[in-house]
């Protein structure tokens, strides 16, 4: 019986120590296809950032975008040429140290695709 009790105690300790240790959703990346020209696509992303209250850190006209929010969120958009014929896609990387990076990128992608 003592051996069974020891096993139960070990299992309980393992469950307690790992039960609350959920991975923090602090960084997430996804790829967006172009919507029109690369310039039009970036303009759309910039407009979404502004709508969401982000502060653009890159100059207008650049195809790369860096934006930050007062609550610590950060977005980086990098154009990448893929395939034949060469198609520019946009690699989005969302950061939020408090979690929610995947939802942030998902919201931006949804707005980008739907035009809202």
Structure report:
There is one protein chain. It contains 3 helices and 5 strands; from the N terminus they run αβαββββα. The protein has 116 residues and is an alpha+beta fold. The chain has a single domain, classed as TATA-Binding Protein (2-Layer Sandwich), CATH 3.30.310. Strands 1-5-4-3-2 form a 5-stranded antiparallel β-sheet. Strand 2 (55-56) and strand 3 form a beta hairpin.
Q: What's a concise summary of this model?
A:
The chain is 40% helix and 26% strand. It contains 3 helices and 5 strands, in the order H-E-H-E-E-E-E-H.
Give me some keywords for this one.
116 residues, alpha+beta, TATA-Binding Protein, five-stranded antiparallel sheet, 3 helices, 5 strands, 40% helix, globular
Topology readout:
Layout (H helix, E strand, L loop, with lengths): L1 H18 L7 E6 L5 H14 L3 E2 L8 E4 L5 E9 L4 E9 L5 H14 L2
Antiparallel strand pairs: 1-5, 2-3, 3-4, 4-5
What is the succession of H and E elements? Answer: HEHEEEEH
Q: What form results from the Cα inertia axes?
A: globular
Strand order of the largest sheet: 1-5-4-3-2
Please state the average pLDDT score: 83
Given helix and strand content, the structural type is: alpha+beta
**Strand percent estimate:** 25-35%
